[in-house]
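Our collaborator T.R. sent over the components below with a one-line note: 'Predict the complex.' Nothing else. No constraints on interfaces, no templates requested, no preferences about which chain binds where. So this is a plain run: every listed entity goes in together, and whatever single assembly comes back becomes the starting point for the next discussion.
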Amino acid sequence: MPPGEAFAAVARGCSPIARTEIVPLRTALGRVLASDVAASETLPAFARSTMDGYAVRAADTHGASEQSPAYLRLVDDVPTAVVPRRPIGPREAARIHTGAMIPPGADAVVMVEDTNLHPVPVGDAEVEILAAAAPGENVLTVGEDIRAGACAVPAGRRLRAADLGGFAALGITRVQVAAQPRVAILSTGDEVVPASAAPGPAQVRDVNATTIAAIVERAGGVAVAHGIAADSTLMLERTARAALDDADALVISAGSSVSVRDLTAEAIGALGAPGVLVHGIAIKPGKPTVLARCGGKPVVGLPGNPASALVVAWRIVRPLVRVLAGERIDDDGLGDERELAAVLDVAVPSRPGREDYVPCTLARDGAGHLRATPVFGASNLIFTLVRADALIAIPFDRSGVAAGETVRVIVP
Amino acid sequence: MPPGEAFAAVARGCSPIARTEIVPLRTALGRVLASDVAASETLPAFARSTMDGYAVRAADTHGASEQSPAYLRLVDDVPTAVVPRRPIGPREAARIHTGAMIPPGADAVVMVEDTNLHPVPVGDAEVEILAAAAPGENVLTVGEDIRAGACAVPAGRRLRAADLGGFAALGITRVQVAAQPRVAILSTGDEVVPASAAPGPAQVRDVNATTIAAIVERAGGVAVAHGIAADSTLMLERTARAALDDADALVISAGSSVSVRDLTAEAIGALGAPGVLVHGIAIKPGKPTVLARCGGKPVVGLPGNPASALVVAWRIVRPLVRVLAGERIDDDGLGDERELAAVLDVAVPSRPGREDYVPCTLARDGAGHLRATPVFGASNLIFTLVRADALIAIPFDRSGVAAGETVRVIVP
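Returned assembly:
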């Protein structure tokens, strides 16, 4: 099954988690907004100047130019943070600073570069206006940024710097966000020992628990470590059930051999209806992936090979975490801010009907464009990925990509 | 001055901070490795099978095919986590599982799909080999992943999932990383009140402290809030000096009016040698930016306008934080994993000799390519950025970008 369809099959039946938290702005970055937040007030609340210059009635500057200036009487000086003392009448102007309140009567600001000031010995100074101003010129009008009652930030938005800035502008200093999805991570394989252990003969350390946890956390989830389960259906099922009970999703890295994978699929199938939905996806590396939904929660059985596990965690687990957090994403799970586009240096063959992920290095050329150079070789080794900068994503329907083509690269 | 040159001018004289921390793998994601980490052992430590199948001497399968199979005597069964009981002699084979140790004598694995097993009533079974195996086929040899003493992960690497996986494989569960750079953030402007306050007439809330802090944190730094300084050179200089003393860098959002900006530049100039290096950069929005280095620490004076402050924080402050953390980045501060490429829907004009950042929405077309549609209008409003998905980055030397061109977009 194509990875996009496989992802959609699992994601469709999974509801975003209902738990929410109220957090201050300073910890809200990257969290997913739980419900629409409406603007509590209108911004700007008062008309403001966007320039240093002179507040005027636009009509008084009609036809003004360097050859034929308009002359206005300077009647006030309006700094920021101050309410103007008086309105602007016909043929009057007030000096005004960027951000200051536009006096009543005025409807435009002539920037200081288009004026000359003529002090006079007695009485008000005269401002020479060298350019006509249209009504509203250099003025932020009331409500131009946002109006009270309008949706300020929509539910499902993963909050960015600008969103937090919008909240600050409105005086909203705490927001309700989705709780971070809890993803239980369980490894299997008789030959696998914890990263902290010294492997015996014929044993290896668990790599996948670490990489999957990193991808879960980068996606905004909380990784809940459940160690390494014994290779028996009964024990695995028991451990997996306990892990899933305590979490919103379960990821099992399923040992390397076919027998262990079958055992994992069997244990997953027993966790709840509808059980296993997909057995094998058209992706390289990572084909022997099991996708299930058990009691409304997604369960993913990843291949034991570290590179395969990492690629499928990126392609499937990462968007699942985003869906669980209530983020709005594309149906096929693609589309992510941690993707780049790069021009391919040499051709990369592929097989249509399969998404291929090929390790590559990245470099910028003279024109500033990223160039991707595939790293061929043993793609099932963790240090092949450590040495790579990124992975070239070759789409499902392509039989390879030519040198010079622009490709999508992911940076797990 | 072009933004790239301006960044380089400040970054050149700033040393990465010397403070380091030792952290467990589970909190090391996104931190910058403080020094090269060498592999403490060789991986794999033993030759392993990458397939379920039969471990053989490759020479014994020479010329084997479906038409003319080779027949080998089955002498052992090697599951994972077990040391093989005996070596493989000529014309012998051992059943082997993915990840299991290759028995001495064997140098290849024939995958199970290329074999038939013929049980015999008495004695050893016979394996029919239907395809020749080359020496090393389906075998991970000792040291193929990494050799003891080789550099596993280099200093200056911002740690990714794969890097943490590499450490786990080696049994390295704690790593030394650079301390997170501390960036003091200070706002100015008589009209500015904290986000938590109710603005009086002619006052507005501080947006920039929030957005700058978000960009600093996203870049791996710690934002240290210093509130809003009074608009007097003496007070501002005093507050700024205290803020910088306690941090690795200082960012002042410099109020909107020219007089306040001049005052900020003056205060920055007094903080230490060499002082202000750049006054004004060729970027839109964000031209009135001040860049300084005071006593070896970078100091940035951002425009007061929220959109300008956010763009320049992204373009200048973000790479400065990365440099302070010891990350290796390009001299001009460009190049980032939070950049996408998108095809432009409609032409966007620009002026050569200036980097332009234009708010846009993003959507994927049928072929999966991102399309960027510029959001024209008041680009100096915070909610223009809230409503946008990203910003189109128009390079310094371009006089606009045509519809259909691929452009770089940033996602602050």
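Summary for T.R.: The helical segments of chain A are 3-12, 161-170, 208-218, 233-245, 258-269, 306-324, 382-387.
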